[in-house]
Amino acid sequence: MVGLGRLAGRGVILHLQHTGETLTMLTAPPAGWKKGTGSVGIATLGADMDWERLADARGVSTHIVLASGYGSPTSRKFGDFLTPSQATYGGTGNVVIHLVSAYVERAMLYDRVNIAAGRMTFLSDFSANPLYCNFMNAAFCGNPRAASDNTAHAAFPTASWAARIRVQLLEALILQSGVYFTQTRHQYALSQMRSGFKFNGATIDGEAIPLELAWAPRLGRGGKLPGHYKIGFVWDTASHDSLFEDREGKLIAVTGAPPRRFHGAWSAWFLIDQRLMRFPGHGPDAGITFLGVAYFNTPRSQLRQAQYSAGLVVLGAFSGRPLDSFAINIAYTRIATPLRRAQKRLRRIAANAGPADAWPKPVTGSPRSDAAIVEAFYQFHLMRGVSIAPDLQFYLYPDGRKSLGKQLMMGVKTHVEFI
């Protein structure tokens, strides 16, 4: 630890942590699915280097994050492929070391302007909130799940070539934008992103250009109720496949033809976290905080047209446990209206089809509709950098299919910061 302290004093900060998430099904699944338990985990190692201290390069720093993950989410055991029950699942390529991000950053004008460039994760910079990953479910952790519907938006633990600028307009007002080069067909493909160390630009197919305004007021008497409000928009220039329509406007399920392609897609969001009340004497951050999300996608090419979330985080409710927290969050996902209409149309066609009609594949299962997820946990802070959180999750219409009914799960999330 002495050595690490000396490194930090010279401008090198290392961090090593592990998150484990386990859930077991309490509700018997529909026929064809098997009741069970799923466990996932991820270890991350990172280094932040201050080159102003190391080499007198004013305002310059570099950042690198490596990861190694394992496991499979419980939600797959009862047929949900829409929203993983454990957010740390996936993306690390089943390799020992996966490069998440590596970039250089420069602070200027008394830290009012910040620019960064390199291998960067889009959804770590935009529509993000550090409070979200206290939750286990992917509907909440990191970003609203709808944010990663578009593969032009690189999600942790993947990255793309990018450049970002952040400007502090006022003390509590920050505007940021950037250019993130997209790889919509290869962002999560093992051939391109398995290790994260493949740096070529051969699969770049466009750019995502976001704009986000963040306001961080301090409300209440004495400004003791901090909040964060973000409103943002992104447009990308990549081409996106229709989920249901071929190039002639007919249903893919009927014709089996290649999908129709659309040029460009947009997303918009509004995020809020606002402390509503304090617990005096229980710690500087003790209190009740409201979380709210509204996220919207291009309905013609994205599965989720919208996601709405609302929740509460209660920190330090008990004076003897000032760092313990309790939280509950509810997410509602709306499946894209064009897809819902196409599903109804397909079923009408299938009902009138004769035995001689040729179908690329049979029409099975219930059509996708809306879905909802509720998560609640109590997080015990055991010691510095170590926490354990019993977790309860409820799915209504898993995978957006009413035929899958509902599912109740119980489990635990552990987090250990070694450095």
From TrEMBL:
Single GO BP term: carbohydrate transport
GO molecular function terms listed in the Swiss-Prot or TrEMBL record: porin activity
GO cellular component, one term: membrane
Stored InterPro entries: Carb-sel_porin_OprB, OprB_Porin, OprB_sf
Source species, domain of life: Bacteria
Family per record: Belongs to the OprB family.
Protein name (record): Porin
Lineage start: Bacteria, Pseudomonadati, Pseudomonadota, Alphaproteobacteria, Acetobacterales
Gene behind this protein: quiX
